[in-house]
């Protein structure tokens, strides 16, 4: 089951957010995650495609003045109680317009998972996520660390 925004959402008459998978620029997502994301560079193109295809919800953003795909987030979920926020990014050229905040807002506050327990892993942007109620995990959270080694980059 996936969850979509009924209509694209415009920000500043320039940036358009949508959860329509047909509007995703998968090549741009692959390029960013493969080259710029500290958390995604170990994944193969097939891994990235499979992770997008297997996601419960995706939200992307396009700059309507250039047609460029500029931001993305995805979530995995059971669709009822819990969701995991993944692969959140805004390309460097589009930063400074509040797109990261709008992206997270559309994903977790405006979507069908607004009342879920949300989880994520990140080494940065803690201030952004704290605005949406993310905190240090409590004693009920356990984690099994990565079991697949990260392959070296060619």
Q: How would you describe what is shown here?
A:
The protein has a 6-stranded mixed β-sheet, with helices on both faces. The protein is built from 4 helices and 6 strands, in the order E-E-H-H-E-E-E-H-E-H. By secondary structure, it is of the alpha+beta class. The chain has helices spanning 26-35, 45-53, 99-109, 126-130; strands at residues 9-11, 15-18, 57-63, 69-77, 82-90, 117-119. The protein has one domain (9-130): Aminopeptidase (3-Layer(aba) Sandwich), CATH 3.40.630.
Keywords:
154 residues, six-stranded mixed sheet, alpha+beta, 4 helices, Aminopeptidase, globular, 6 strands, 23% strand
Topology:
Blueprint: E1 9-11, E2 15-18, H1 26-35, H2 45-53, E3 57-63, E4 69-77, E5 82-90, H3 99-109, E6 117-119, H4 126-130
Parallel strand pairs: 5-6
Antiparallel strand pairs: 1-2, 2-3, 3-4, 4-5
Major sheet attributes: 6 strands, mixed
Instruction: Catalogue the unreliable spans.
Output: none
Quickly give the CATH architecture: 3-Layer(aba) Sandwich
Strand order of the largest sheet: 1-2-3-4-5-6
* Terminal-residue CA separation: 36 Å
Strand content is 15-25%
What is the H-and-E element order?
EEHHEEEHEH
Query: If you compute it from the alpha carbons, what radius of gyration comes out, rounded to the nearest whole angstrom?
Result: 15 Å
Say which CATH homologous superfamily is assigned. Answer: Gcn5-related N-acetyltransferase (GNAT)
Number of helices: 4
């Amino acid at each position: 089951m996936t969850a979509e925004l009924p209509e694209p959402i415009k920000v500043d008459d320039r940036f358009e957010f949508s959860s329509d998978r047909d509007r995703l620029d998968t090549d741009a997502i692959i390029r960013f995650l493969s080259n710029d994301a500290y958390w995604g560079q170990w994944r193969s193109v097939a891994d990235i495609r499979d992770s997008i295809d297997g996601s419960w919800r995706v939200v992307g953003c396009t700059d309507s003045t250039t047609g460029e795909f500029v931001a993305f987030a995805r979530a995995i979920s059971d669709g009822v109680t819990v969701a995991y926020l993944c692969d959140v990014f805004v390309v460097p050229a589009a930063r400074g317009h509040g797109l990261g905040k709008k992206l997270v807002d559309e994903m977790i506050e405006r979507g069908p998972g607004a009342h879920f327990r949300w989880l994520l892993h990140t080494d940065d942007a803690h201030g952004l996520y704290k605005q949406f109620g993310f905190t240090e995990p409590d004693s009920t959270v356990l984690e099994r660390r990565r079991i697949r080694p990260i392959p070296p980059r060619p």
